[in-house]
Amino acid sequence: MEMTAKTTCWSVVALLALSACGSPIETPITPEPAMVEEVELIPLDSVALLSRISIDLRGVRPSVAEVLLVEEDPTLLPELVDGMLDDPRFGAQVRALYANVLLTRQDSWTVDTSDYSLDSSLQPQLAADVGEETLWIFSRVATEDLPYTEVVRGDWTMATALMAEMWPLDRQDGEGFQPAQYTDKRPAAGILATNSFWWRYMSNASNANRGRANAVSKTLLCTDYLSKPIEFERDVNLLDADAVNEALATNDGCVACHYSLDPLASYLWGFYFVDYNSAADISTFHPERERLWTTYTEVEPGYYGEPGGSLGDLGQMLAADPRLVTCGVDHIYTGLLHRDIELGDTATLTDLREVFLGEGLRLKPLFRAVVDTPAYRAAPSESIGPRLMGTDQLASAIEDITGFRFIDDGYDMMRTDSRGLRTLAGGVDGNFVTEPATGPTTTMVLVQERLAQAAAHYAVAQDLTSDAPTLFVHVNFSETPKSQPDLMAAQVQYLHLRIFGKQVAVDGPEVQANLELWQTLFELEGSGEAAWTGLLSVLLRDPDFLLY
Asked: How many whole angstroms separate alpha carbon 274 and alpha carbon 342?
């Protein structure tokens, strides 16, 4: 088990950034606030909005029946949205959204199955399961309408059978992730009492959990200590632990940050790991270590001036902090709009916060309120770009249409980096790439192309031998544009409706161009199966499929 190098690197970086606060920087006072330029928001049409909401709430394009229903009667859209929030796929989108917040999905776990005397064939599952624990807590809170405060004070977690073999867990029976409880007497503190969160955010003695405390503040309160303006005091020897501790206690700039950060860090010593090469040490909570702050920092646990004792106290204090609610609203809003918060969003965010509070801190009503906002429903314009599918959405959308999931040797290639394509496709790795791509990239287009080609081959092969084809519903692969022009045109129309969520005219340019491409491929390959495979791959890698 080799975790020390990465841990030490992060700890040193965090210590340097957090300790080098220096003197506060004077901010010039602006006489009057800058005016916010009003941008006219043109709403999407109902069918395009249906596609956007479906991708965001379910990770898939709408069904053909849904598109036709909304085309005929747009007033039925709200009813369909209610159904999407109750769809089993909604939880996966909650996890995808929070994966970009918590950054626990990563391949840099150097723990392997041999550390737990498990078969090596389980390594892909271990790599996938560990980073999902905290995300499944958020998705259960969302799908089961639990109050949002459960993420910091719940006495349960979510785990797979493999995780229950590795860690001290009492887990409910069932496939995949199921509710579970740790049995090592760790406090009830939601994600703050999970192994995966503290495996992602490690610490050592010199950092004294400060990096971890900042992770709590950043992810749950939207306050990042590392983003605060700082100055280096050149006369502080940052390689001298005693000099650093002296600066933290006496330097005005350092005290400004560490006055609140260090007491927060003192709650977290129960997850301080002494031996990173011991599976038992890094898999269990250590109540006997909770008072190690008396040795390393001599700073008592506290929460912005309010004293406390255990990790459970921290969870309760976070649950009572209004910033937890505000930050939760911010995460959902920015995640669904695919952009940072702007000054002009203030009134909308205030309204959303009131909805969240009024609905008992349930996430479904908050998601619903966000997709009802004018900002979310705005059509692309010169000032507002189109949305870009994330890696999870691209994978799930293609799987929904074709049935294909890119798995190699047990690894989901769209969900891993060391073996897969996640960051190349624009995703985050939770370690070096911490924000998703906001625009198309060269590698993203290449991944989409290869994924489309593989999915097209799979879909055609499946429908070719199926008694109930799901995608090629108008042809049996023996037709040509000359022999059966109506059936061929109808099939092309159906592909556009299913893949892009919109209808095209039978005599429109899309149908004509697609049939010409089909004919060219048929003449090259001499096979209707190959021609349809080529055409389907072209449609799946069209920019209109990636953008929504």
From this structure: 43
